[in-house]
Specification:
This protein is 24% helix and 14% strand. The protein folds into two domains: 98 residues, 3-Layer(aba) Sandwich (Rossmann fold); 68 residues, no CATH class. It contains four helices and six strands. The chain has a four-stranded parallel sheet. Strands 5-6 form a two-stranded antiparallel ribbon.
Length: 174
């Protein structure tokens, strides 16, 4: 499926050693806890950038601070931390090549209005018997308007709207 979508499969080691930018988007589970540590950071290209908007504990903050201080990493963008709020004594707070945010980077009056509008549109569509515009259990094939099932969930249709809005259907991860 990866190749069908025009991408090339790679191991995590390949990604860490070949990418200029790494952006983390994984749930915090036992197998993802501290998935980025000294070993992975040492594999990264000199001057690479790492971004974590997933969960704080998926990376070793001390190792990131060291890689930033040493110049191994050019920069980091972090809006999640293992301990929130980020402790005042964290070495990350002293670095000029890191952007620290409190996981509300999306926040604006406009984004809240849009969020509420899209939620209401989805509810209205489902009540009419139509599939939602923003379902959590399917993706759409880029070549057609046909829904494609993800992670074992059947695609939603007008006849069978999804009944699993609350379930996560993550198709990628570690």
């Amino acid at each position: 499926m990866i190749r069908e979508r025009g991408a090339i499969p790679a191991t995590l080691d390949q990604l860490f050693s070949e990418c200029d930018y790494i952006s983390l988007h994984v749930p915090l589970k036992e197998e993802t806890r501290q998935m980025v540590g000294t070993r992975e950071l040492e594999m990264m290209k000199e001057g690479a950038i790492i971004i974590n908007t997933a969960r704080g504990a998926v990376l070793d903050e001390a190792a990131v601070a060291e890689a930033l201080s040493d110049g191994k990493l050019a920069a980091a963008g972090l809006d999640v931390f293992e301990q929130e709020p980020l402790p005042e004594a964290s070495p990350l707070r002293e670095l000029s090549n890191v952007v620290l945010s409190d996981h509300t980077a999306y926040y604006s009056v406009e984004s809240i209005i849009e969020l509420k509008t899209k939620a209401a549109q989805n509810v209205l569509r489902v009540l009419r018997g139509e599939p939602p515009l923003y379902p959590v259990n399917l993706i759409r094939d880029r070549g057609t308007a046909a829904p494609v099932a993800v992670a074992g969930h059947p695609p939603a249709t007008a006849e069978t709207p999804p009944a699993t809005f609350g379930k996560k259907s993550i198709a990628a991860g570690r």
